[in-house]
Amino acid sequence: MRTAQASAPEVAAPRRTAPSPRRPWRTGLAAAAFLAISAVVAARTIANLNIPGQPTVERFGLQDFRDNFYYPSVALLDGRNPYDYADYHAHYPIDRPLPAYSPVSLLLHAPLALLPFGPAQIASFLLNLGLLVVLAILAVRDVGLPAEPWRVLLVAALLVLSRPGHMTLYIGQCSALMAVACTTALMQGSRRPWVAALGLAAACAKPSYGGPLGVLMLCRGDLRAFFGGAGLAAVLGLAGGLGPLAAAGGLGPLVASVRGSMQVVATDVTFNEPTSLIRLDPVSLVGRIVGRPPGTLINVVVALLILGGAGFLMRRLRTRGEPEPRTLSNSLGCLAILLATYHQPYDALILALPVTALFLMPGPRGGLRALLAFLLLVPGLNYLATFTVLERFEINRFMWLLISESNGMALALALILGMRLAWVRAERGFSP
After folding, report:
1. Domain boundaries, the chain
2. Which of 167, 174, 168 is closest to 385 using CA atoms?
3. Tens digit of pLDDT for each residue in 100-125?
């Protein structure tokens, strides 16, 4: 057992593993798997594609892209306030209000809003597919393995096959972008602060990602990256918010419009804690048990406990020079971001890094490692906790709770075990 000095800075170079012998057939098989799985998801998306101009028809292919990303940016370019649900719904063919996404999101999706709706949908799907490949590259590199094409394509194929990847592509969410942004910020926080700052700024498009990520970076001591990213996010948020601010007629009316939209969002059965089948955060379990939303105080307390504990351990791990603590720190950060605030199954894409580390990182493969891998895979493989499945079967209240909270319970246990592992590793050191 080898222990580094507690005060040593994080200066160790990434692990380098010699490239495996060239075997073109592996790349060919991995590429075929990636393309085949992607084609199946694309076919399902096309078969259930939303009908332009008829938003109330229950066809959910790229629905989130339409309501949450494309038309909000179109409204920005048109000089309207997409947070004003009444005005937004009256002028654009959408079905749901814009959640409290940052104006950064409006800017990030503005290039797609310049395209007609049809081509924009195709571009969004292909962009998400490309981002899954980027996420695979980041995950493979963080565990110290060469990003060889066969390995990257294999991981990317598994991401597309997973429920989070499938959902992201199917409904057109931005979770692939958020996973890439958060993973980049965590990986580069101390080594390339400005790259990490760009990741944090992009993650601030959705406060449920950017807020927890910023807290963890601050706790870990990635100060240059944090302040650079927070400053850039503030500039982008201001630039993207000027249009809605002017359209609303001032800051007060703009805030009121955001609150109004969120009141409508809160009535959605997938958002509301007592009725949601798919939320991942621990607070949702409380809501399901008591039959009503737990309230803001409970949400804040849970978030502070998770982020405070994870941030403390990430800072302890940062003092070590070995690569293993860095990967453990990044993995713990991904899990804490997912559980600290409201998230749905597609957001579990952020677990690509820890799952890849558990399966591919060299080292002993004991029972704890296998258990963590199983727990983190639950939201990726669980197709029971869906309205499609549960609405077809009559089940009692206990089974409904068990199925609906299976993802959240698995991830909560994984967080507890991961924090315990981080504590032990920080205290005792790492194996060579």
Report:
1. 27-428
2. 167
3. 999 999 999 999 999 999 999 999 99
User: CB neighbours (10 Å) of residue 211?
Assistant: 18
The residue-averaged pLDDT of 360-374 equals: 82
Which residues have CB under 8 Å from 97's CB, separation 6+?
A: 67, 85, 88, 89, 260, 261, 262, 264, 265
**What is the distance between the alpha carbons of residues 360 and 152, in angstroms, rounded to a whole number?**
12
Q: In angstroms, rounded to a whole number, what is the distance separating the alpha carbons of residues 152 and 89?
A: 41
* Gyration radius (Cα) of the chain, Å: 21
Q: What separation in angstroms does the CA of 21 have from each of 113, 141, 156, 211?
A: 45, 18, 21, 43
Residue 204 DSSP one-character state: T
Collapsing DSSP states into helix, strand and coil, what is residue 109?
A: coil
Q: DSSP label at 346?
A: G
Predicted structure pTM score: 0.89
Structure tokens at 342: 């409201």
d(CA 371, CA 390): 27
Distance CA 67, CA 26 (A): 40
Residue at 414: amino acid letter? A
> Long-range pairs for 360-367 at CB < 8 Å and ≥24 separation?
360/140, 360/143, 360/145, 361/143, 361/144, 361/324, 361/327, 362/17, 362/144, 363/324, 363/431, 364/431
Residue 229 main-chain phi, psi, to 5 deg: -70, -40
Tens digits of per-residue pLDDT, 206-256? 999 999 999 999 999 999 999 999 999 999 999 999 999 999 999 999 999
Reduce the DSSP state of residue 393 to 3 states and report it: coil
Contact between 294 and 283 (Cβ < 8 Å): yes
The residue whose two tokens read 């009121």 is: 256
| C-alpha triplet 99, 103, 108: angle, nearest 5° | 105
